[in-house]
Structure formats: C-alpha cells, structure tokens
Fold this protein.
Amino acid sequence: MEPNTKMGSNKTGIDMSPILSKEMIEGSKKLKLDGADGYTNLTLLEQFYLDNDDPLGSVPMPGTVKGVVKSATKMLTGHHPEVFLNKLGERLAFERSGVRIYEQLILKCEHMAANSMDGLKLPLEKLQEFHDQEAEHFYLLVECMETLGGDLTAQTPDADASGVAASGLMKVIMDPRTSVSQSLEAMLSIELTDNAAWELLIKLAEDMGLSDMADKFRHALQQENVHLETVKQWYEESVREQGIMRLS
Ligand SMILES: [Fe+2]
C-alpha cells in the first residue's frame, strides 16, 4: 500500500478537538455576514474588480507573412484567425507542460523503484513513449504556428487561462510527497482536457479550411486517446490494488 493511504493520526479534522470545535461552530453562528463586518466591504471590492475588468491579454498578430502564410490567410478571409491562433498557442503551451509532467512522473517512478516503495509499478518505457509523443505534438504545433506566421514565444490569452487552470494539477505531480496514484489522478484530468482540446483544434482547423493541419491533429488525437485510456486504467489499478491489499 502507498504511504499516503496508510492510517495515521488525525491532524486536520475537528474530531481531535471536540471542545474547541464546539466553540468554533457556536462562534460561526454568531458571525454576521452583512453590515459593517468586512463581508460587505469584500463584496464591494469584488464588484469593483468585476466592473473594472481587463481581459487576460490579446492574441498577437502574426509578424511575418510568407508565401505559405499568404495562401493560409487567404483561406482565413471572412473568419477570425485570432480565434485559431489563440487556441493553437494554448495547445502549444499545454503540450510543452505535458513533456515536463511525464518527466516528473518518470522521476517519481524511478525513485519508487530504487527505494523498493509500495505502489503500482508503471512501465517506464510506456511513460517515455507518451513523453516523446507530447514533445512530438509540441513540435507539430510549433510548425503550424510558424506556417501561420505566429510568434512561438507569445502567450495567448487562452494559454494564460489554461496554464492557470492546470497549475494546481501540475503542483500535485511535481510535489515529491504525492504518490504515483495521486499523480495519476491529476494526470487523468490533464489528459481528459488534452483530448477535448485536440478534438476542438481539429474542428477549428477544418472551419479555417486548413485540412492538412486537421489531418496532422487527428494523428495527435489518436495518440492522446491512448494516453487517456492508459492513464485512466493505471489510475484505477493503483487505487483498486490498495483496496485489495488492505482487505488481505
Ligand atoms: Fe497526452
């Protein structure tokens, strides 16, 4: 069984302190949530920021217009290419993070094996294969961005939002204290998002008339489907294995 699942003392729940927890519950009932107690001020503060909201940024215009780009942009006439560039930039950043995530998981598994720790043993060669495919997807997106004349280093608004959303999941995987099973749960969320995002990117490329790109994205999606199914299976095995061991 993984160390994170073993029984230990209660350090976070209220059951360890029945007297103080009773006081805390009584105190919370006395707390007024309106009037001049700070709550109203907080609401006003939130309203202020909502009223004065700025967007996360803007999609950088392509800086270069080459021959290929000209034909591509011709096809984009009547559309909003910035929507596609925004999502392309998001996927590019996400796949780059995907490479780092698999690197961390490989490190975690190697450490587990080197120290004979309990837990599901993941096949390192499969993890390496997924890692390499994430890198392959990153370079595919680099190629597409270059074709459209986009700036590879620019962070698009949706890349920003998606990066913030994924940051918690990445922290789980990067944390040396988390188990392989806990990391796999975070990986599952990442791969689910990744899958849906590639499906959308294919549709956007088709909408833009970029069928060659859409075909390349379909190949990436096929690989992502395998990542998703495999990670889901590993995660389920890692949890169920612990449950079975506990009963024996
Ligand atoms: Fe993936």
Q: What stands out?
A: The chain has a mean pLDDT of 86.
